[in-house]
């Protein structure tokens, strides 16, 4: 239905997005995962025709949308990364404003507002001024006003940044429900891999403007199929132990945290006994040693050598 | 577009405090600092010669805008001064005058000019009558009538750029303060109404509108109309209060005064857009606005008359300052009483500045924030 072909954007010398290829089918929830500065927002802006790509194409129903984006604009709802609302107006007044710019009027507008307020759980706060809302409520309204014109595709740019876990769950559940009940197609951007893992059918992972992996959750995790992650926990480390791990030829990667060291080793190797021995030699008192099933975080770590979150 | 304006007005009604603050400050400063100018200064006057009260001199003194002359006896006059009810008294002689000074103040030299002016004119008239050999009353009448007619259709005319009969610069406090503070404070009101364009664009609010069937230019137009409206509403309220409550008479040109405020407000809206396009963020804007408005007020004649400014450099700067032209048109109408046609030049400059700054401003904004 919607396709990005070699989409690229250069800001002066900075390649914000490089040759991004992506497709979205009707009814899917697609995740776009990447750390800050990966180029997610830039990609979304090009997709929704807000900025012009330096190179590449956005195709909707097999037509290029670069020069004539109207057909696409009519069917998308965009939830920007910032709270894009009139904070001095009430929730309802904001909805009236954003409904009116989509030519909704009178009874039709009123009904739609009631419906969306119900969906985002703000019905009893409709008369309150947005400025007085909590971060989570603002986020919900930010999503709500993008749904008034019944978009076929909703594009969300990090809709859960900076809010409490409860609001976050509420939003995730709402997105899932909209997708199930109304067959709404969703493009969900985030730097939280748990969210993307929970919501999405297919995932694209970006880093520094590049697409570094894509596919279903299982497909992506299979990237790590040749390896496994072991988590070693202790109250304190010493250099001798860390050095020993790093020197070990079977260990592919060592990441040192305050109370946790993760190492990546080939799947077939069993290092359990060896690790215990190393710890004894170096006088490190271990709390536990676990083999972990890989997460998207591990995939990102594997591909880039850095953690997803800074 | 109507929807955008509706939203803006709703926000204004919900939160009119900034607007009211700046309106109140304009009125307050103009009233407090310009207080003395609102009433004329009363001057006791006495003459031994009873006829002086109906003389040419007395008539001339009555014409003064700044002073009201009250006739009284010599004792009463001395009493007024002694009790401090008046600063200065005047005793009129036939060819000369005396001042009785209680408190020496800047008003004294102005009073002296007024009184001397009257005597000089009287002296000139007497000389003309003598030259025309007029002795009887009827003859004098004819000569004076002829003189009057000739004066009204002169062979050539000299225009004086300063106000009132005396050939000196007169500082009209009321108008100076009223115009100065109004034009100064309205810059803030307008600027703080243009700033949201920057904030709303950054937050993506404009992007939402752009994706809808509403066009981007409608968003610009609605925002600019709204800023203009709020700025104009402020000056309108201030001037109405001064006209009908304080009772300042705009020399019968009140409507024209309101009219010539339009190009000024327009140019300030444009200037605000221009500044908004140049700054990085709202903090920078908030830091720069007071600097710009205060400098504009200082070199544009809002705090003190532009006539006081002597530096060539500052005078050159004042030529690119909309406030200078704003003061010029307002003073032109209400103080000097020029007809509108004579103010076409400053009005055109204001409109031109408005169009250019707005065009460049919007262009820059579009290029930078994309
Ligand atoms: N308008 C812009 N001008 C210049 N550089 C930009 C602009 N927008 C984004 N960038 C740069 O492009 C890169 C990607 O940014 P962005 O798309 O916002 O990443 P993300 O949304 O994944 O955090 C960053 O390095 C950012 O600094
Ligand atoms: Mg982003």
Protein model, in words:
Chain A: Pfam families: ABC_tran, DrrA1-3_C. Chain A: It comes from Oceanobacillus polygoni. Chain A: This is ABC-2 type transport system ATP-binding protein. The complex is a heterodimer of chains A (310) and B (370). By secondary structure, chain A is an alpha/beta fold. Chain A folds into 2 domains: 2-218, Rossmann fold (3-Layer(aba) Sandwich); 226-293, YebC, transcriptional regulation domain (Alpha-Beta Plaits, 2-Layer Sandwich), CATH 3.30.70. Chain A has 11 helices and 14 strands. A 6-stranded mixed sheet of chain A has the order 6-7-8-3-9-10, with helices on both faces. In chain A, α3 (91-100) packs across α4 and α9 (239-247) runs antiparallel to α10 (272-282). By secondary structure, chain B is mainly α. Chain B has 2 domains: 2-35 and 167-367, no CATH class; 40-152, Periplasmic binding protein-like II (D-Maltodextrin-Binding Protein, domain 2), CATH 3.40.190.10. Helices cover 68% and strands 6% of the residues of chain B. Chain B has helices spanning 2-14, 17-33, 35-38, 56-62, 74-82, 107-131, 137-152, 173-203, 205-211, 216-246, 254-278, 282-300, 312-318, 322-334, 344-369, and strands spanning 41-46, 67-71, 88-92, 97-101. In chain B, α10 runs antiparallel to α11 and α14 (322-334) runs antiparallel to α15. The two termini of chain B are 22 Å apart. The chains are: A alpha/beta (310), B mainly alpha (370). The structure holds adenosine-5'-diphosphate and magnesium ion (MG). The site of magnesium ion (MG) has 5 residues of chain A, from α1.
Describe the secondary-structure layout:
The complex is a heterodimer of chains A (about 300) and B (about 375).
Chain A: E1 2-11, E2 14-24, E3 29-33, H1 40-47, E4 55-60, E5 63-64, H2 70-75, E6 76-79, H3 91-100, H4 106-119, H5 135-144, E7 153-157, H6 165-182, E8 185-190, H7 193-199, E9 202-207, E10 210-216, H8 217-221, E11 227-234, H9 239-247, E12 253-256, E13 260-266, H10 272-282, E14 286-292, H11 296-304
Parallel strand pairs in A: 3-8, 3-9, 6-7, 7-8
Antiparallel strand pairs in A: 1-2, 1-4, 4-5, 9-10, 11-13, 11-14, 12-13
Helix pairs in contact in A: 3-4, 9-10
Chain B: H1 2-14, H2 17-33, H3 35-38, E1 41-46, H4 56-62, E2 67-71, H5 74-82, E3 88-92, E4 97-101, H6 107-131, H7 137-152, H8 173-203, H9 205-211, H10 216-246, H11 254-278, H12 282-300, H13 312-318, H14 322-334, H15 344-369
Helix pairs in contact in B: 1-10, 2-8, 2-10, 4-6, 8-10, 8-11, 8-12, 8-14, 10-11, 11-14, 11-15, 12-14, 14-15
